[in-house]
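User: Some background: our group keeps a shared notebook of sequences we're curious about, and every so often someone picks one and asks for a predicted structure to add to the entry. Today it's my turn. The entry only has the sequence so far, pasted here. Could you supply the structure so I can complete it?
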Amino acid sequence: MAERAEGSRRIRVTAQLRELRFDAGSLSLNLIATVGRRPSMPVERMGDIERLRTWCERVGLDVHPGEDMMGLLDALHELRACAYDITTGYLHRHAPREASVHLLNRLARPGPPAPQFEVGADGLPAAAGAPGLSTPALLSLVARDMITLVSDPTRRQKLRECDSSICRMIYLDAAQGRPRKWCSMQRCGNSTKAAKHRRHREENVGPPVT
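Assistant: Of course. Here's the predicted structure to add to the notebook entry:
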């Protein structure tokens, strides 16, 4: 378990904090969530090829076996920074960097891989398959997801930033009633309420009786 300093405090970087998240609500938001505790103390959750393979598998992206995985990892990190800039720009009402807009549009240009028609041993049509994704095709899928999300007024208005000051994960709020304050009630909601309760109790405890 690692520790980092943030001001005068020591922050514990737990195994849970390093876990990959797949509950942000879209492919591109799940990519952004591969960094935790933005912007105060970023924690890398997808820093090596093993984590990259796990992330691709969990989000349903089948990578071509011959791909340069380290090159793909670097490219996804670049796209991740671009997507974060664009979503926080919307959330905080400021324009994204021009470089982020250009990169997103450039990565979205390649078309998705064409499905492959297959015939089974009995000569009948088998399930349609598709070859593993090349790096440009995979990046295009993520970039197109981000463009579709932020270009749709209805979905864009459901973008939220976790209310926890040590999380700030960006997610798509699927709630039908009151907007969600936290990315997860179990992870951030309960811990935030518990911390608030402790502070309230400490503030209302009188001086010791002598």
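Suggested note for the entry: The longest strand covers residues 2-6. Residues 5-9 have pLDDT under 50 and may be disordered.
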